[in-house]
Automatic annotation (TrEMBL):
<dbReference type="GO" id="GO:0004806">
    <property type="term" value="F:triacylglycerol lipase activity"/>
</dbReference>
<dbReference type="InterPro" id="IPR029058">
    <property type="entry name" value="AB_hydrolase_fold"/>
</dbReference>
<feature type="domain" description="AB hydrolase-1">
    <location>
        <begin position="112"/>
        <end position="354"/>
    </location>
</feature>
<dbReference type="GO" id="GO:0005739">
    <property type="term" value="C:mitochondrion"/>
</dbReference>
<dbReference type="GO" id="GO:0006629">
    <property type="term" value="P:lipid metabolic process"/>
</dbReference>
<dbReference type="InterPro" id="IPR000073">
    <property type="entry name" value="AB_hydrolase_1"/>
</dbReference>
<comment type="similarity">
    <text>Belongs to the AB hydrolase superfamily.</text>
</comment>
<keyword id="KW-0378">Hydrolase</keyword>
<dbReference type="Pfam" id="PF00561">
    <property type="entry name" value="Abhydrolase_1"/>
</dbReference>
<protein>
    <recommendedName>
        <fullName>AB hydrolase-1 domain-containing protein</fullName>
    </recommendedName>
</protein>
Length: 371
C-alpha cells in the first residue's frame, strides 16, 4: 500500500499538469497508508460502495489493492443501517422561503408544478431565468426555493441531504395541492437534494431533473472552505466598506469575476459603529462544517435498497466533470429510467446556457406527460 499511495501522488501531480478537467483535491495527496485504509473501512461500514469512495481516476488502481477487504466484509446490514438514518422523518425542518411564478393562463392551473432547487452558496434568484422560461413554455406554476441555511430561509445546525430533502418534502406536502405531483429540478447541491427527495418519498413527485450532479460520493471541494474563509475575513475586516474592496479581497482566491459576484450575493451591507461594513446572509460556520465533513460532496444512499423508476433527466455541462462518464453506471443503478443531455457550458449550466436547459427540460416534460 505504501508504494501504491506513492504512485498515486506522482500520478496526481502528473494529471494536474496535463488536465484542466480531472482535478484531485490535495486532501488525497496527503493521505498516509493508514488513513487511506481507515477511511475506506469507516466509509464502507456506513454503506458506501468502493467505487463511490474515491475519484474515478483512483478507482482502477485502488480496486485491486483493497478488493479482498471489500469483498470479504460486505454485509447487507451495514447498508440497511445507513439507509435507516437517511429515510427517517424524525428530522427537524424549517419553513423554506420561496417565490411562486404563476401559470401564465388558466389552462396551466391543473398542470403539475415545477419545484426548482439551487446549489451550494446559491439562492432562489439563481434559477429565476430558468424558472421564467419554463413557466412560459410549459404553462404551469413554478416554485423557486431557498434551501435551509441559504437565501432567506432559516438557519439551522444540521445541513445534510436527508434534512434538506425533508424540508422540501414538507414544502410540497403543505404548499402544493395534494392532487398534483410536482416535477423537481435541482442544480449541483440542489440536484442531490432532488434525488434524495424521490428516493425517500417515491410517490411524491412525477419527474426528476438533475443538473450537474450525480448519485456518487466525491472528494470534498477544497476551494469552498477557502471561499468561506475569505467571506469571513470580509465580514470581520472593518476597513472593507464597499463592493470594490470586497471584490478585491476575493480576487486573492478567485480570478473569475462571475464567481466572485456570485459569492458576494451571500453578503449584505450593514452599518457597524456608524461605518459601512458587511455581514453574512448565510451561516458560514455551519456551511463550512458541512463541507469539511463531506456532507455536500458525499452520497449515502445505496441502490440495492433505494431506487426510483420515474422519468429522470440528467443535464451536464460539456466543460464540467461533475457528471463524468464513469458515473453513468451509478446513475443507472439508482435511476434506471434516466436520460442524459449535454449542454455547451461549464458547471453553471443554469446561468451559462439557460436556453438549452429550458429546451431540454421542456421536451422531457412534454414527452413524458403525453405518455
Amino acid at each position: 500500500m505504501v508504494d501504491l499511495v506513492s504512485s498515486f501522488n506522482f500520478w496526481i501531480l502528473r494529471r494536474r499538469s496535463n488536465s484542466n478537467v480531472h482535478k484531485i483535491d490535495r486532501y488525497w495527496e496527503a493521505l498516509t497508508t493508514t488513513t487511506l485504509t481507515d477511511h475506506i473501512r469507516t466509509m464502507h461500514s456506513r454503506g458506501y460502495k468502493l467505487q463511490t469512495l474515491v475519484h474515478p481516476l483512483f478507482f482502477r488502481r485502488l480496486h485491486n489493492s483493497v478488493r479482498c477487504y471489500y469483498q470479504t466484509n460486505t454485509t447487507y446490514n451495514s447498508y440497511e443501517q445507513a439507509n435507516t438514518e437517511l429515510m427517517t422523518d424524525d428530522i427537524p425542518t424549517v419553513n423554506l422561503a420561496f417565490d411562486r411564478l404563476k401559470a401564465p393562463n388558466k389552462m396551466g392551473l391543473n398542470a403539475n408544478p415545477l419545484v426548482i432547487l439551487h446549489g451550494f452558496f446559491g439562492n432562489k434568484s439563481n434559477n429565476r431565468t430558468l424558472g421564467k422560461g419554463l413557466n412560459e413554455k410549459l404553462n404551469r406554476d413554478v416554485y423557486l426555493l431557498d434551501l435551509r441555511n441559504h437565501g432567506r430561509s432559516p438557519h439551522i445546525e444540521r445541513h445534510d441531504y436527508a434534512s434538506m430533502a425533508h424540508d422540501v418534502e414538507k414544502f410540497i406536502q403543505t404548499k402544493i395541492n395534494k392532487e398534483k405531483k410536482p416535477i423537481i429540478i435541482g442544480h449541483s447541491m440542489g440536484a442531490k437534494v432532488g434525488m434524495s427527495v424521490v428516493l425517500r418519498k417515491p410517490d411524491l413527485c412525477s419527474m426528476l431533473v438533475n443538473m450537474e450532479n450525480a448519485p456518487v460520493s466525491k472528494v470534498p471541494e477544497g476551494i469552498f472552505p477557502r471561499y468561506i474563509k475569505a467571506l469571513q475575513e470580509i465580514v470581520q475586516d472593518e476597513s472593507i466598506t464597499n463592493s470594490e474592496q470586497a471584490d478585491k479581497a476575493l480576487q486573492r482566491i478567485e480570478k473569475n469575476a462571475v464567481v466572485r459576484q456570485f459569492l458576494m450575493t451571500n453578503l449584505t451591507r450593514v452599518k457597524k459603529d456608524g461605518k459601512n461594513g458587511y455581514k453574512s446572509r448565510v451561516p458560514l460556520e455551519i456551511l463550512n462544517d458541512a463541507i469539511v465533513k463531506g456532507k455536500i460532496s458525499g452520497w449515502e444512499f445505496n441502490s440495492s435498497l433505494n431506487r426510483w423508476t420515474g422519468p429522470t433527466l440528467f443535464i451536464r455541462g460539456t466543460e464540467s466533470n461533475y457528471v463524468a462518464d464513469e458515473y453513468l453506471p451509478a446513475i443507472g443503478n439508482f435511476f434506471p429510467n434516466f436520460e442524459l443531455r449535454d449542454v455547451n457550458a461549464g458547471h453553471w449550466v443554469n446561468s451559462e446556457n439557460p436556453t438549452a436547459c429550458i429546451d431540454y427540460i421542456t421536451d422531457f416534460v412534454e414527452r413524458h406527460e403525453d405518455v
